[in-house]
Amino acid sequence: MLKYAIKRILMVPILLLLVALFIFILLNLSEADPVLLMLPQEYTQADYDAMAAKFGLDKPLIVQYFNWVVKSVQGDMGISYKTKGPVADDVVFRIPISLKLAFITTLIMVVIGIPLGVMCAVKQYTAFDSIINILAKFMGSIPGFWLGLMLLIEFSINRRWFPIYGIGTVKHWVLPVFTLLLPFLANYVRQVRSAMLDCIRQDYVRTARSKGAKESRVIFREALKNALLPIITLTGGIFATMIGGAVLVEKVFAIPGVGFKIVEAINTRDIPTLLACTMILAVFTIIVQLVIDLSYALVDPRIRGTFATKKKSRRSRIKKVEEVR
Amino acid sequence: MSNKILEIKNLSVQYTTDKIVSHAVNNIDLSIEKGEVLGLVGETGAGKTTTALAIMGLLPRYISTVTGEINFKGENLIGLNEKKYRSIRGSQISMIFQDPMTSLNPVFKVGEQIGDVIKFHNRKLHSHEIADKVDEILNLVGIPPDRKNEYPHQFSGGMKQRVMIAIAIACNPDLLIADEPTTALDVTIQAQVIKMMRALQKDLGSSVLLITHDLGIVANFCDKVAIMYAGEIVEAGTLEDIFDKSRDHHPYTVGLFGSLPNILERTDRLEPIKGLTPHPSELPEGCKFHPRCPHCMPICQAGDNPAKATSGTHVIQCHLFNKEKSL
Lengths: 325, 327
Known about the structure:
heterodimer, A: about 325 residues, mainly alpha, MetI-like fold, 2 domains, B: alpha/beta, globular
């Protein structure tokens, strides 16, 4: 198990290098010449060369990549084409903001979504299940930006319950979290329900009942623990998506997160900033994935077993060899 | 009378799904005495498992209707409140399921799954007392107790079935329902499991309802046999009543035995019963077996079920043996 964890952690830097290379190449495939973008309308060849040299753009792509990797490892993410200041200064402070938004939203989603999904599965085909299902479908189809704007108009402008933008107090977070939460929650409840339905129909659930277990125990212990695997995958995936994918919500509520910056960087073709933001998202996605994989092993002994048996079989092989001797 | 552990009277079970009514079990009578092994034999879809689940009170609630009486130690289980039923399940009546591969929960340790059933019914026991009991039961079913911290996927099929049996006998039940306990196992393991079950049954003195379609196991293990067809018991009696070829038998029973290979007679082909078991939503009129019966008479094709012809312990539900048969 430990070996597996270490192996997975060692994979992280290699994955990141590959992701960086991929993004690097993709960004440089675009027609736009960043040097031209930064130069004034009228320029000489000398100006061009000087600008290119200043940002290291005169070197071959692979050299640029290596330079970027070496500098990034040291914490220097390059100079923004737009602000002409260090990219790191503009990006690093955004990470906790985006993380906070994603984390709070995911937490609420799990706390509400799992019990609701389980209830739906247990009460399948009843009025409760149908109502939640219809509500979920309805909520799931509301576009986030529209919902955000409507909430802003009603609760911030008309009723003045919440501030319009910013991130200072708890009140600032209510509307953005709600806007981000609703569509994800709707989908989440439906997925939890179907994961639970799969498990409720299994033979071992019948065995548990035949042992005289209470219904609550049958559902929340025997069935839910088996349903957790797909639920963990789903939750982790949504969390990773939220970190970078809350662009619209960040835009509507003017939250200075990473997603907000990505859109800005794309619009201004600010490649160093874009690279930095993308890499941050990649780092978090990979970390989340790692956590998911490791927690699989915690929940499911069969996955743990695949690592344990390998070791055991080697030991028994040695034993056999010794016996033969 | 008082010796009867289980007495089923006029039990019927219907499933209703999408307005289609399936008559899975129709007016069956069964009784098992203390320490007795009753074999319930029949084809797939004859209603054997439904009967077992009805006794356990584990039929899917919203789609099934149960009528009749299931008297367990003198108490009717039908309509019993859930809390009381729960205290009976696992402790006084327990069940071994058909497929040990899927019947154990993959994410809990085997010892824990056995310990649970003890814990449910003996709330006052300490955890170390439960652990001791688990060790004892594992020994009983032939599993080394140090394997109790392993998970089901680390066990073979036969070992898993032993674990299932351990769960079932953990609380010394009065009645053990074994639903095709060996169907999913290979033949050598089947023999082991049956041998072990027989030894345990003798030791513990439990009554057993053995559901199977394997007549060999029935001959080995059972005291009484009931043959089930299309939700009805068409023939019932002691082992001798059913297996003695010189006596009268229901044509379906004859067909069942006829489809077994015989070592003494050389035949090119086995003789299966022609046709298929009717679907429980489309049962034929009259005797349910008449479309497949080689002795079908006009009287068989309409009206109610044939009356039961009884001689001693032997009961046959067929017009052929009815005293007042009108040909």
